[in-house]
Design a protein that fits this description.
The complex is a heterotrimer. Chain A is an alpha/beta fold. Helix content of chain A is 28%, strand content 18%. Chain A is built from 7 helices and 12 strands. A 7-stranded mixed sheet of chain A has the order 1-9-8-5-4-2-3. In chain A, strands 7-6-10 form a 3-stranded antiparallel sheet. In chain A, a hairpin with a 4-residue loop joins strand 8 and strand 9. Chain A is globular and about 55 Å long. The mean pLDDT of chain A is 93. The longest helix of chain B has 18 residues. In chain B, a hairpin with a 5-residue loop joins strand 4 and strand 5. The model of chain B has no long low-confidence stretch (mean pLDDT 92). Chain B folds into 2 domains: 168 residues, Rossmann fold; 66 residues, no CATH class. Chain B contains 10 helices and 10 strands. Chain C starts with a strand and ends with a strand. The longest helix of chain C has 16 residues. In chain C, the strands form 2 sheets. A 5-stranded parallel sheet of chain C has the order 6-7-8-3-9, sandwiched between helices. In chain C, helix 3 packs across helix 4 and helix 3 runs parallel beside helix 5. The chains are: A alpha/beta, B alpha/beta, C alpha/beta. Chains in contact: A-B, B-C.
């Protein structure tokens, strides 16, 4: 199969325009979930169909694409999506964060600081942060419209009551530009501070739920918390076993069946660079 | 002084069928009004119209806001009406599952309204929730338990605490003791009676049980086929009923 | 002294819709006045509406015609035509009503039953309870019962709790419906003392006494219903 059989980046131009309109609206109303006519993609829901459609809509032939899954460039999901765009768009790809102009990600924000020249595209499974407490879509929309966000704190209250601290560690809700509460997708809460005042444009696509939302560059993103239980990120007692970094998000890796474990950077590019520099 | 809530010719029809017709009354601060009648008499429909859950087909319901404005429910913005419902009003459902968030703990159920109006201090929320559980006679060590683990009577008391935590001035109750054992009912009624008196609450209580009306209310409205056929002081209605239906209702109560 | 309660052309009958609409007349065009500081007995054979008259004045029964004017510090109020909340206010501030039967509310202790009408009027709890205890003591209710709900009390004890409740709050108008009916001699005398004290403090009393001797001690004149 050869690329010319498809339009650039798989989707036809009409579809891309439709998605771009949704993206523009999302940028205009930071944190607001814009409905869009999500298409069937040649991959199952849950594999990042929302992110892929957003990437396809923003991609130009001059772009350099990086795709990561859980921080790594070499996992199945990342490899598949990268190959998909190589085949359908012929764009250059990279594993290095600072070389990429478009980064599609699942569950992480790269450790390296992003720039104004970059777009970060998140894959989102469940875009609605209120869903946990309110199953009715009509009701959650009204709650967003009226800024009725008290229930979000109910969830955090439950955490503290049960575990003595806010135990939510990923998909940690935050308020965008002092208005909409949003779900930053299942990134670890370690990454939440990176959302705030980020120079790069951050776009979120949920394919199955047919929603797009955005955090424009340099937008305030405040993680929800209590006055007496302020928002905190995770920390580890040991540095990365490979690169020695003390400031990156670490994955726990089980080494054998005797319970030997090691902690290593989840951002594979960052880890490799740190090792190279050392 | 103005009435807290006043209903003017409130009617609600479902197509050709009338839910309630032409209901007029004033409720004053601190007053408890019982609406009695048999199933299908329109009392729950009326309660839902009065509490803004159901738009009336015609007529007006006015409410005196805390800032002194006298506002018609249907002229309020949705945001204002919803804010009213979770601050100055309470609604106690017959089935506690309709009024509670069953997926979260008792403490979170009580704390929710506080968080909804902007309380962001966990310690304060926790302390207030503990205090309210005590006031509705729920042991403090049950604060982190799910309402699923509560008995029917406890759930109902939890629902009451959840509603009263924002110090509302008006509480709507739809058969608050329905479906409970008689002994549990008595305790709940006594608790409600005490709270209403101590907090100087106004309440509108829908019930088919005249004993509930006698214990809780100072005034009563009797409904039949969607219309109010008689209203007055509770002891007047019970001891000197005028309308044939009210006489039947009163004489049908079994004496123990 | 001048009248604080004026009953004018009062008529009352009951219509029993469940019994073929039969109409039972009670009385027609009744007129009476009670002055502050006097006790007036309502007399007549049983079934003539002695209790009904008290209930009409209290607003529990609704008159067919006529007026029941009650003087309070806001002026005259006609109980027959007054709005429910005005009647509720009169009951809080002006008219007290003592029957032989206590309506027991589960779990409310005896001393609170007595203190409640005072607290409704804004008297602080401690003060109200103090007066409640004084009265319970005078009416020979043993101290160990004060903290208990009258639910389990004997008929006579319940009646005395009810009397204490009625006399505690110093109502300007008191309606007494056989307050001594099931009491022993000592307690009867205590009640008669309370009636005399209330008169001395200026209360207007309208009372039904079964016993003629007691009636003569307590009341200065009577209204006959025959």
């Amino acid at each position: 199969m050869n690329a010319p059989a498809y339009n650039f980046a798989y989707l036809n131009e009409q579809t891309k325009r439709m998605i771009r309109r949704a993206i523009l609206k999302a940028i205009a109303v930071p944190g607001y979930q814009v409905p869009f006519a999500s298409r069937e993609m040649p991959m199952p829901y849950g594999w990042g169909t929302g992110g892929v459609q957003v990437t396809a809509a923003v991609l130009t032939p001059e772009d350099t694409l990086k795709v990561i899954d859980q921080g790594a460039d070499d996992t199945t999901n990342a490899v598949s999506i990268r190959k998909f765009f190589v085949k359908t768009a012929g764009v250059a790809t990279t594993e290095r964060t600072e070389e990429a102009s478009v980064i599609q990600t699942r569950h992480r924000i790269p450790e390296a600081p992003l720039t104004e020249e970059q777009i970060l595209v998140f894959q989102v499974p469940i875009p609605e942060p209120l869903r946990f407490l309110e199953p009715r879509e009509t009701e959650t929309r009204t709650m967003h419209a009226l800024e009725e966000y008290g229930v979000m704190h109910v969830k955090l209250y439950e955490d503290i009551a049960q575990y003595g601290e806010i135990a939510t560690t990923y998909a940690y809700p935050a308020k965008v530009a002092d208005r909409y509460v949003f779900d930053p997708s299942p990134i670890p809460k370690f990454d939440n501070p990176k959302l705030d005042n980020c120079p790069a444009l951050q776009l979120f696509g949920a394919g199955r739920e047919k929603r797009i939302y955005a955090v424009p560059p340099y937008t305030k993103v405040k993680s929800l918390d209590f006055e007496d239980h302020p928002f905190e990120v995770q920390s580890w007692s040991e540095p990365c076993a490979l690169c020695g970094s003390c400031h990156s998000f670490l994955d726990e890796i089980v080494m054998d069946d005797k319970g030997t474990r090691m902690f290593v950077c989840s951002d594979s590019d960052f880890c490799a660079r740190q090792r190279g520099e050392r | 002084m103005t009435a807290l809530l006043s209903a003017q010719s409130v009617s609600k029809s479902y197509g050709a069928r009338a839910g309630c017709m032409d209901v007029c009354f004033d409720l004053w601060p601190g007053e408890v009004l019982a609406i009695v009648g048999e199933s299908g008499s329109g009392k729950t429909t009326l309660l839902r119209c009065l509490s803004g859950h159901l738009p009336a087909s015609s007529g007006k319901v006015h409410y005196s806001m805390r800032d002194g404005r006298h506002v018609a429910l249907d002229e309020m913005s949705e945001a204002e009406r919803r804010l009213l419902m979770r601050t100055d009003w309470g609604f106690v459902h017959q089935d506690a599952r309709d009024g509670l968030r069953m997926g979260v703990s008792a403490g979170a159920n009580v704390g929710e309204r506080m968080m909804a109006v902007g309380e962001r201090h966990y310690g304060h929320i926790r302390a207030t929730a503990t205090d309210w559980l005590e006031r509705v006679e729920i042991p403090e060590d049950r604060i982190d338990d799910s309402p699923w683990s509560y008995s029917g009577g406890m759930r109902q008391r939890l629902q009451i605490a959840r509603n009263l935590v924002t110090s509302p001035r008006l509480v709507f109750m739809d058969e608050p003791t329905g479906g409970l054992d008689v002994s549990v009912q008595a305790r709940l009624l006594d608790l409600i009676r005490g709270l209403v008196k101590r907090l100087d609450l106004a309440a509108i209580v829908v019930t088919h049980d005249l004993a509930v009306a006698r214990l809780l209310s100072s005034r009563m409205m009797v409904m039949q086929q969607g219309r109010v056929i008689e209203q007055g002081l509770t002891d007047q209605i019970l001891e000197d009923p005028q309308a044939p239906y009210t006489q039947l209702l009163v004489s049908s109560v079994l004496q123990v | 002294m001048s009248a604080v309660l004026k009953i004018e052309n009062l008529s009352k009958s009951f219509v029993l819709h469940q019994q073929a609409g039969v109409r039972i007349p009670v009385f027609d065009c009744l007129n009476a006045e009670v002055e502050a500081g006097e006790a007036v007995a309502v007399t007549g054979p049983s079934g003539r509406g002695k209790s009904s008259l008290l209930k009409l004045v209290y607003g529990t029964y609704r008159a067919n015609a006529g007026a029941i004017n009650v003087l309070s510090n806001v002026g005259w109020t006609d109980v027959v035509t007054a709005a429910p909340r005005d009647v509720i206010e009169l009951r809080r501030d002006v008219i007290g009503y003592v029957t032989q039967f206590l309506r027991v509310i589960p779990r409310v202790p005896a001393e609170m039953v007595v203190a409640e009408p005072m607290m409704d009027r804004g008297i602080v709890q401690e003060q109200a309870l103090e007066r409640a205890r004084t009265l319970l003591e005078r009416l020979n209710i043993p101290e160990r019962l004060w903290h208990l709900s009258p639910m389990t009390f004997s008929g006579g004890e319940q009646q005395r709790v009810n009397i204490a409740r009625g006399f505690a709050a110093h109502f300007p108008i008191l309606l007494l419906d056989e307050p001594t009916a099931s009491l022993d001699t000592d307690n009867r005398n205590r009640v008669l003392e309370l009636v005399a004290e209330a008169r001395g403090q200026g209360s207007a009393i309208l009372a039904v006494f079964h016993d003629e001797a007691e009636r003569r001690i307590a009341c200065s004149r009577s209204i006959g219903l025959d």
